[in-house]
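WARN  no MSA supplied for this record, continuing single-sequence
INFO  ligand: PMV
INFO  echoing inputs
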Amino acid sequence: MEIEVSAPGKLMLFGEHAVVYNRPCIVSAVSSRMKVKLEKIPTGLEIDAPQTKDFRFVEEAVRIFKEKYKTNGGLKIKTQSDFSSQYGFGSSSAVTVATIFGLSQLYQIPLTKKEIFDLGYQVTLNIQGVGSGFDIAAAVFGGVLYFLTGGKTIKPLSVKNLPIVVGYSGIKADTPKIVKSLKLKIRNNKEKFNQIFDKIAQIVEVAKIELEKENWKKLGKLMNENHHLLQQLGVSTKKLDSLCQAAVSAGAYGAKLSGAGGGDCMIALVSENKRQAVESAINKTGGKVIKVNPNAEGVFNYLIN
Ligand code: PMV
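INFO  complex generated
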């Protein structure tokens, strides 16, 4: 029997970094997906993953799954991503979730979404040592989620439209490294950082309400404020700042970096009549507009042979 599943990547909308410190965030699953094909073989583990990073996540997901559910026999697993891992869209979380879901299908062990999340989050922690698990949640549940550290709350938001433009800064960010170095900075100035995190959490709470109301003007303002607070955390870069500035000057409601910072992508909220202008402003400022749709479906099964 052969199983084929796919899980989506993600984009952080509000609340990055603060979510590592017991605050909420809002994340959207994106249309770029990771496909994983799984097949039982008599013995061994054969993984065919073009990216070395994906290989480690698949291997750990299999190890944890086998240990927990005491499954026997060998496995052949092949990954295929339709997005470049350099954009920071969460190929590791997508491949982890797709592998766990695929294994549950292959061995016919029904798992709830929360059980898939818990196993996937364990894989992230075992490999990276840090992380809130927001990306794992996006890959499992899909859509737009209000998420609290470690999955203490995972609440799907009812968001129909999300008119964003995504701009890649040209630099690949090393998320675990940035999270760890911020942790060291926080040690010396807990009060200052807690204040920033509390302000970010307030933004997330307001954004959660305004997203469902499609109040783009207000959301744009919240994005700008969130970006400003990320600058204060010291995780933005000149390039990300200039891309956000260019987007706002071209008529975006607001813009912010998305994810750990240090590179990867920024997002801008736009009205349809300003989309073109914002996209060309991002490209002119040395960014690269990435065509990706938010609000994508969570992990699913699309082939059983
Ligand atoms: O760099 P990304 O897109 O994987 O986002 C990281 C978000 C952080 O809040 C900095 C870390 C986390 O695990 O929540």
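The chain has a mean pLDDT of 96.
INFO  checksum written, moving to next record
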